[in-house]
Amino acid sequence: MTTKLVTLESALQEVLGDRVRSVSVALGEITVVVAAAEYLSVMQSLRDHASLRFEQLLDLCGVDYESYGDGAWHGARFAVVSHLMSVTHNWRLRVRTFAPDDDLPVAPSVSDLWNSANWYEREAFDLFGILFEGHDDLRRILTDYGFIGHPFRKDFPVSGYVEMRYDPEQKRVIYQPVTIEPRENVPRVIREENYGVK
User: CB count, 10 Å around CB of 35?
Assistant: First the structure.
C-alpha cells in the first residue's frame, strides 16, 4: 500500500472512528462501509474535516446485490455507493452504505452536501427504487413518468411489463402489455463441404 493510502486510512480511522463498519483497500482505492444511520454524518465529516476535505462527489449509484456471487451474498440487498475526491489532498474514496430494508430501500440524501448528488440520487431512485430521505425533488429521470417498476433491479423482467407504440388510428402513443414472444437464440452454423474453397 502506498504512503498516500496509509495516510488516508489513518485519517479516516481518526476522524470517523467507530462510525465505520469496515475499511478495505483494493486496486489502489480505499472503500469505507458505513451504516445507513451514520451515512449522512460520515459524509458531512468527509467533506468538512480539514484532514480529509472531500470537496467533490464524482459519482453516486445504486447497487442490487440480489444475485451477487451466484447467490452466495447474504447481506442487505440494496446499497448506495459514492465516489469522492479531495482536490486539496489529491486522493479518492469510495463510500458504501446498505439500505436496512430490502422491501423499501431508503438512504439519507447527500444533495445538501454536494449539488452533484441531485441527479445521481434521482437516477438511483428511478433505476433501483432506492428512496433518498431529504431529497427535495425525487422523481424519475431516465424512464417515462408512467413507467412501472425499476429496470436495474435483478428481478425486473428483461422484456419489461409494458411496451409503447404509436397508434395511427388514435394519433398518439399508447401503452400495452408486452407482446414479445420469448425465443431461443441458437446460432446458425453453416455446414457446406466446399465453403471457402475455390
Answer: 13
